[in-house]
From TrEMBL, chain A:
This is Type 2 DNA topoisomerase 6 subunit B. Its EC number is 5.6.2.2. ATP binds at residues 57, 88, 109-110, 119-126, 624. It comes from Halovenus aranensis. InterPro entries: HATPase_C_sf, HATPase_dom, Ribosomal_Su5_D2-typ_SF, Ribsml_uS5_D2-typ_fold_subgr, Top6b_C, TopoVI_B, TopoVI_B_transducer. GO terms for biological process: DNA replication; DNA topological change. It is an enzyme of class 5 (isomerase). Homodimer. Heterotetramer of two Top6A and two Top6B chains. One of its GO terms (molecular function) is DNA topoisomerase type II (double strand cut, ATP-hydrolyzing) activity. Belongs to the TOP6B family. Pfam families: HATPase_c, Top6b_C, Topo-VIb_trans. The lineage of its organism: Archaea, Methanobacteriati, Methanobacteriota, Stenosarchaea group, Halobacteria. The keyword Hydrolase does not apply.
From TrEMBL, chain B:
It comes from the Archaea. This is Type 2 DNA topoisomerase 6 subunit A. Residues 191-357 form the Topoisomerase 6 subunit A/Spo11 TOPRIM domain. Homodimer. Heterotetramer of two Top6A and two Top6B chains. Its cofactor is Mg(2+). The lineage of its organism: Archaea, Methanobacteriati, Methanobacteriota, Stenosarchaea group, Halobacteria. Transmembrane segments: none annotated. Residues 139-188 form the Type II DNA topoisomerase VI subunit A all-beta domain. GO terms for biological process: DNA replication; DNA topological change. Its EC number is 5.6.2.2. The gene is top6A.
């Protein structure tokens, strides 16, 4: 920024001199000097970042156009340089946009949108172009073909780092075999030392984008990642900010720029999830803060000494006896119909009754009379405020406070509400009244009022105070006054408002998280959890977690943690990421994983995946490598992981018990037959059949067939201690009869009889039907784990 | 060794096998029930005056791998024993353990001799037949008798008539594994003196205690084998001789007396056949340690534990034992039989035993 400090000094030659050396630097120039912030700090990393930016852009472009992405990445070794080629089948970019998208930093369609997208600032791809240009001196070569065009556009672009403007060195039409799409070719000083990160990035991208097909060609190797689903991510829509997520500065700016007139209109127009009801709640809450509330007092009843009617009558002079009596009577009636009244209600009553009486008697009840009447009535009502406060304080404090103390504080509190005032207070005012009264009472009367007691008294008083009817100021006035704007912000935050709509977010969804993991990891078990949307700073976000376990997953060392933000893999700065912190702080031993020392990333053949989708993912830096430690996001990450981990736990438990069961079964399967055989030998009796005994020992579900002439009985015996719901299908090669409720389907001369009995623990069910004696049935049982099933048929 | 016994024992084993067979046949889980063999499950039998198993039982069931394995081993053992009986042969407990190594199925093999011994005990209990009738012998215990007694023993090489003083050497007559093969012919004995240690037995024999007092000196050799206990019982029952037990003055030795007099926990099913409830305890009593001021050793922790456990042992719930054990816990000392030598080599035969035996009314 230019400085004019020298004006204060004597000579003005220095100022000019300094000013000459000072000039605005272009953003491109800034990033040229700070390329590490964008992830281009080394040749190894630069290559990964360039691939990442180009692929992210391609995926976004395809999805926006509703096209299943088909992305080709190629790296060519050019000696000291690498050539990076990224092609997609996206909608293509119009001729006018090409140079700007690739050649100008901060140009993008998303920066001002509240919508989930991979890129946000429009820095990434142009930074890659810039990096290539700085290291190789070569321009970026861009080919693009839009769906409607017969031919493609070819450009060579460089960034003018001083002006942040693209410069097009070559522009021509060309032919391209893709019907539509974009291809960018960058040459840069780079090396393949970060090959592992590159592969991680591509693999993880494939996991988190199961709808994409990706191909990676390296100088000496080629990898293909097929798509696992044809389902594109749900289309996202842009949303307005959420009232819980704006900051004061933003709110003031929005207030200044809005076309709305009232606060109500403003909050309904400019924010999401605010309708009339919520707007009213916000305004009530704003009134409480801006105007405060009016204390209400119990209305004296007619028989009491200072009845309203009498004092009002006294206050009215020269209005005729009948009119005065009617007026006083009317005011008194209106007010005593409420248990408690506030000052504004007295005003209303006097106004309404005054108008009535005035119309009826033709006598003018002018403002002086009315004011006198209000004062008189309010005086009568507030005369009893001490006993009012006593009742409230007594109710709000514990019974252990003795009467004298309650009376003492009551007296002091009542004194804060002066005779003749409107008794209008904010909650903060009330608290300071109570604090002062309590402090005094503590000092003078040897009592103690703890924080809870004070707060209870404040609550009791605030509860009885009435909302004021004053009209809130106009929104432009609110925006003009910083304190008022702050009151509005507080008011918005205090009101319960529905979470922002999630249409702006496209979670991968549990099913596809599992599919994505299943595509790249050959594991035994997959679990996924997609949380409901939540809000941080007015931006909705959704956290998803997935776990893959066992199978071919690398079992040495610690589990692999995959981090994603808006479907983009985060491969660097693992240690700085909120995701990693959360994973490390979970007690994985609870979920059956090995965790040396009880904290840290667990060990074993596991992949833990976390995806944070938001209209604005808070990153720790511009290079978007790590998610910042935002408590709301961390909480959701933890809940998502725990949800998936619970499934993992039950899988592991089950697997363990199944393994023990299998071991037992294997052991018994050698022991018992031997024993049976030995017994037959010793007793010289015939060989034994031991399946039933085995089934009973293993708590198995035993399905046995008995045939008695034409009657076939399938006996289902449940030896387990929980209900069994087997699906039993008997396949026979002759037509069965008297099938007793079985569902029978005939197919190519075979009959399928299907039963789905529920057999309670320790019970048995008999399924009976009739079949020709020479027919040959065959049974299939589903719905019971193999380990727990014994079929003797 | 009558044919009757053999076929009866075989019959009993086969009926157990048949029980398992039928359990399999019915599709139920094979199992057998045996009394729990712990000190909390033995009770005094008023009629016989010995300690027998109580009502608590343990089930050996094929429900678990362990249980199934036990039953498998039992089946193999039954098969082996049935065959042995059929062939009129016998074997030792240790041989059974080693023999299992030859069984083709690893799961059927015994992992220790304790296991095979326990299994034989199980079979004895369930079938009601003693292991002697299964023709299972323990290892040679080498226990001996010395005294004025003439017996006839049926050996594999014919009958032998032996006088247990005149026909034997210094070592005495060796008790065979199955003392029921002995027939008592004649005796001049006044009482039976069962001695724990070899050293003391030799001292008594050298000093001619058996001759002078007409005593049958039975060497227990530590915890007495079944055969020794059986013979002692027979000497008492058939020859009407009082039995006294002479051991060291420590908790382990009291248990030796206990198993002679009351029956042991592990073979409580055979108490009626093995125990001599009338047997009396001579010493060394904790009282003697004090009275004779014998050389002592301090009680070790395991001694103290053993004494405390004996205080809870139903077999030792008598006034005499409670008093003696509590005294010993109090003085925290124990003494060996041979500590009597501190008062001279003849002290035991000239003074201690005559005094004690007179006191007890045996002499």
């Amino acid at each position: 920024m230019t400085s004019y400090q020298s004006r204060l000094g004597s000579g003005d030659g220095i100022a000019e001199e300094l000013a000459e050396g000072q000039r605005a630097i272009s953003i491109a120039e800034f990033f040229e000097k700070n390329k590490h912030m964008l992830g281009f700090d080394s040749g190894a990393r630069g290559l990964v970042t360039a691939v990442k930016e180009a692929v992210d852009n391609s995926l976004d472009a395809c999805e926006e156009a509703g096209i299943l992405p088909d992305i080709y990445v190629e790296l060519q070794d050019e000696g000291d340089y690498y050539r990076l080629i990224v092609e997609d089948n996206g909608p293509g970019i119009t001729k006018e946009q090409i140079p700007k998208i690739f050649g100008k930093l901060l140009y993008g369609s998303r920066f001002h949108k509240r919508e989930q997208a991979r890129g946000q600032q429009g820095i990434g791809i142009s930074a890659a172009v810039l990096y290539s240009q700085l290291t190789s001196g070569k321009p970026a070569k861009v080919t693009s073909r839009t769906q409607s065009r017969d031919e493609a556009q070819y450009f060579e672009v460089i960034v003018d780092t001083e002006e942040n403007e693209p410069e097009i060195s070559v522009e021509e039409t060309t032919t391209w075999e893709r019907p539509h799409g974009t291809r960018i070719e960058l040459e840069m000083e780079a090396n393949m030392r970060a090959r592992q990160q590159l592969h991680d990035y591509i693999t993880h991208t494939a996991v988190v984008n199961p709808h994409a097909r990706i191909e990676l060609k390296e100088p000496k190797a080629e990898f293909k990642y097929e798509r696992a689903t044809d389902q594109l991510p749900a289309e996202t829509e842009e949303i307005r900010p959420h009232p819980h997520g704006v900051e004061l500065g933003t709110l003031i700016k929005m207030g200044e720029e809005t076309d709305s007139y009232s606060i109500s209109g403003f909050v309904q127009e400019e924010f999401t999830r605010v309708g009339q009801k919520t707007a009213d709640a916000i305004i009530d809450s704003f009134r409480d803060r801006h105007f405060g509330r009016e204390m209400t007092w119990q209305t004296p009843q007619a028989h009491e000494d200072v009845a309203i009617e009498e004092t009002v009558t006294e206050a009215v002079v020269n209005k005729g006896q009948e009119a005065t009596a009617d007026f006083a009577d009317g005011v008194a009636d209106t007010l005593t119909s409420h248990d408690r009244v506030a000052h504004h209600q007295v005003l209303e009553a006097v106004e309404a009754v005054g108008d009535e009486v005035q119309a009826e008697y033709g006598t003018t009840f002018g403002s002086t009379v009315r004011e006198n009447a209000v004062e008189a009535a309010w005086g009568a009502i507030t005369a009893t405020r001490e006993s009012d406060i006593y009742a409230l304080v007594d109710e709000a404090t514990t019974t252990r406070k003795d009467d004298a103390v309650v009376e003492a504080i009551t007296e002091r509190l009542a004194a804060k509400f002066e005779q003749g005032e409107r008794h209008r207070v904010t909650r903060d005012d009330l608290r300071s009244f109570v604090d002062r009264a309590a402090d005094m009472t503590e000092e003078r009367d040897d009592a103690t009022f703890g924080d809870t007691a004070r707060e209870n008294i404040v609550d009791a008083l605030w509860e009885t105070a009435a909302l004021v009817p004053d009209d809130p100021p106009k929104i432009h006035d609110v925006a003009a006054e910083r304190d008022t704007a702050s009151e509005l912000l507080d008011a918005m935050r205090a009101v319960d408002i529905m979470s922002p709509p999630t249409g702006c977010l496209a979670p991968i969804t549990e099913d596809l998280v599992e599919k994505g993991l299943g595509k790249e990891y050959d594991a035994d078990f997959f679990a996924a959890a997609t949380r409901d949307a939540s809000v941080h700073g007015g931006d909705p976000f959704i956290v998803e977690a997935g776990i893959a376990y066992g199978g071919d997953v690398e079992s040495d060392g610690s589990a692999e943690v995959l981090r994603f933000a808006n479907r983009v893999p985060l491969v660097y700065q693992r240690g700085a990421c909120a995701t990693t912190d959360v994973v490390k702080n979970i007690n994985w031993r609870n979920y059956g994983l090995d965790q040396p020392g009880g904290s840290g990333v667990p060990n074993g053949p596991a992949v833990i995946m976390v995806h944070v989708a938001s209209t604005n993912v808070p990153f720790t830096s511009e290079s978007k490598d790590a998610i910042a430690n935002v408590p709301e996001i961390e909480d959701e990450i933890e809940l998502a992981i725990r949800e998936a981990a619970r499934e993992l736990k039950s899988f592991l438990n089950k697997r363990r018990s199944m393994r023990q069961r299998r071991e037992k079964q294997n052991k018994l399967a050698t022991i018992l037959p031997e024993m049976a055989q030995k017994l037959s030998g010793v007793t010289e009796r015939e060989d034994l059949e031991i399946d039933n005994t085995m089934a009973r020992i293993m708590n198995d579900v035993l399905v046995a067939r008995e045939r008695d002439g034409e009657t076939v009985r399938l006996v289902v015996e449940n030896n387990d201690d929980t209900n069994a719901d087997p699906e039993i299908t008997e396949i026979v090669d002759a037509e069965p009869a008297e099938v007793n409720g079985a569902n029978v389907v005939e197919m190519d001369g075979e009959w399928f009889l299907k039963w789905s009995p529920t057999v309670s623990a320790g019970e048995q069910a008999t399924l009976e039907y009739t079949l020709a004696t020479d027919a040959d049935p065959e049974v299939a049982v589903d719905g019971i784990e193999d380990e727990k099933l014994t079929v003797d048929a | 060794m009558s044919t009757d016994d053999t076929s009866d024992a075989r019959e009993q084993l086969l009926s157990l096998a048949n029980q398992f067979y039928e359990q399999f046949e019915d599709g139920t889980v094979p199992s057998m029930e045996v009394p729990t063999r712990t000190k909390t499950n033995i009770e005094y039998d008023e009629d016989s005056g010995v300690w027998v198993y109580g009502d608590r039982t343990s089930t050996r069931s094929a429900n678990s791998v362990r249980g199934a394995q036990k039953l498998l081993k039992a089946t193999y053992a039954i098969d082996f024993l049935a065959r042995q009986l059929e062939e009129g042969r016998s074997s030792t407990l240790r041989e059974l353990y080693y023999l299992s190594e030859s069984w083709d199925l690893d799961e059927a093999q015994f992992s220790s001799q304790d296991e095979s011994n326990q299994l034989i005990e199980d079979l004895e209990i369930v079938s009601g037949v003693t292991r002697e009738d299964f023709h299972m012998r323990p290892e040679e215990s080498g226990a001996t008798v010395m005294g004025p007694l003439e017996i006839r023993e049926q050996t594999r090489r014919g009958e032998r008539e032996i006088h247990c003083q005149e026909d034997v050497g210094e070592g005495g007559y060796q008790i065979p594994n199955n003392p029921d093969t002995i027939e008592f012919l004649d005796n001049d004995a006044d009482f039976v003196l069962a001695v724990e240690t070899g050293g003391m037995r030799d001292r008594l024999v050298e000093n001619g205690f058996d001759e002078e007092y007409n005593a049958l000196v039975v060497h227990l050799k530590g915890q007495p084998a079944r055969a020794t206990r059986r013979l002692t019982k027979r000497l008492h029952d058939e020859l009407d001789l009082p039995v006294v037990v002479f051991t060291d003055g420590d908790p382990w030795s009291y248990r030796i007396y206990g198993s002679v007099a009351y029956g042991s926990i592990k073979s409580a099913h055979l108490s009626e056949y093995l125990a001599t409830p009338e047997a009396q305890y001579v010493g060394i009593r904790p009282e003697d340690i004090v009275e004779y001021d014998l050389p002592t050793d301090p009680l070790s922790d395991s001694d103290v534990n053993a004494l405390e456990s004996e205080l809870e042992d139903p077999r030792f719930q008598t006034e005499f034992w409670t008093e003696q054990i509590e005294l010993q816990l109090d003085i925290e000392k124990k003494s060996e039989q041979q500590s009597l030598a501190a008062r001279g080599l003849d002290f035991v035969t000239d003074t201690y035993l005559p005094e004690r035996l007179t006191e007890m009314g045996v002499l």
